[in-house]
Amino acid sequence: MASVIKRCAGALLLAGVLVVGAGVSGGVSGGLSAGSALAADPPPFNTQLEGKSKGEMWSGVRQGVQGLVSIPDKRAGTLIQSEGEAWRAVRNGPLSEYGSWVLGGIFALLALFFLVRGRIRIDGRKTGRTIQRFNAFERAVHWLTAGSFVVLGVTGLNVLYGRHTILPLLGPETFAAMTHYGKLAHNFLGFAFIVGVTLTFVLWVRHNIPERHDLVWFLKAGGLFSKGVHPPARKFNGGQKIIFWSTVVGGGILGFTGVQLIFPFSFATLGELQLYQLVHSAVAIVMIAIIVAHIYIGSVGMEGAFDAMGSGQVELQWAREHHSLWVEEVTGERVDHHHHHRAPAE
Ligand code: HEM
């Protein structure tokens, strides 16, 4: 009860401070001439201060009391929003710190994987024949998603880490210009990414429903750690389904929170925006780590993989080894699941 009274007292005091402050600056007289506003006005500032300590006033301010302001944006009547300090502490503390470990960690893991396993080669003899894996539209959608994501990732990381890493290197002028254009790019490309993720979902969801043989794939770790082991897979294996669902779910969360942050207060309160900012950064960092691994395996990490998104045509032997069930579906040939070549006719 006592704290409620204190809170009210604080609220009244702050209202007084703000009204007097605004009055002195000359902005308030017009706004307050309306009869209804006068009726709700707090008593004069001096009488409110009687018997009240400064401590009581500031504790009211701390609790976010709403004062009176004459400008249209009534949010200016909140002098201090204390949750903002908690938000800032999490953003600049654990979020940034754990984030840097996650990002550093994925590069270390991939370097280790490359040293131990090397490039995953096509085991069998190449056939010289190719089959179509992705059509031009699928590849355009992939590169729209990928291109926008890479720029979004780099410019987003600059917002979180740039002042501690790039600013000291380049100096304030260059860093300010770079960050300004980076932020513009980030805001616009967010929409391209949302389009890319939506189309990715529509194009590939039917190939990414979890199936029984995905379990086998995971139990054998996809054969990633053992040469010559290729658990059967249809168009997408278990690992690729993880990439797909990360893109759709992670991308969805990034798109939703991102739109909220581009249009602040249009759909969300300040407290919600602070939460969305933290979710946006945390999900982005996890997704960047996942996608860095995806980029590795789709380029230097595996012989023959890039062609799928480059020309759209993959070497038949590559397809037999990595997507044996898919090859059977599209070519009608039977693949020997142990030796990964065309099974002899029965
Ligand atoms: C920028 C460099 C990138 C490269 C070199 C790359 C490469 C590839 C390749 C070669 C494939 C086809 C794999 C196959 O045929 O089995 C693929 C598929 C795919 N990519 Fe990317 N990609 C990149 C970026 C991205 C980004 C940024 C995203 C999403 C944010 C993404 C999402 C996907 C998805 C969902 C698939 C289908 C599932 C899979 O194959 O893992 N890619 N990518």
From TrEMBL:
Domain Cytochrome b561 bacterial/Ni-hydrogenase: from-to ranges: 133-309
Domain of life: Bacteria
Swiss-Prot/TrEMBL cofactor(s): heme
GO molecular function: electron transfer activity; formate dehydrogenase (NAD+) activity; formate dehydrogenase (quinone) activity; metal ion binding
A GO term from the CC aspect: formate dehydrogenase complex
Record's bilayer topology term: Multi-pass membrane protein
Presence of the UniProt keyword Protein transport in the record: no
Gene Ontology BP terms: anaerobic respiration; formate oxidation; respiratory electron transport chain
Pfam families named in the record: Ni_hydr_CYTB
Parts of the chain that traverse the membrane: 98-120, 141-164, 184-205, 242-263, 275-297
InterPro entries: Cyt_b561_bac/Ni-Hgenase (IPR011577), Di-haem_cyt_TM (IPR016174), FDH_cytochrome_b556_subunit (IPR051817), Formate_DH_gsu (IPR006471)
This protein's UniProt keywords: Cell membrane, Electron transport, Heme, Iron, Membrane, Metal-binding, Transmembrane, Transmembrane helix, Transport
Compartment(s): Cell membrane
Claim: Hydrolase is one of the keywords in the record: no
Family recorded in the similarity comment: Belongs to the formate dehydrogenase gamma subunit family.
UniProt-recorded name of the protein: Formate dehydrogenase subunit gamma
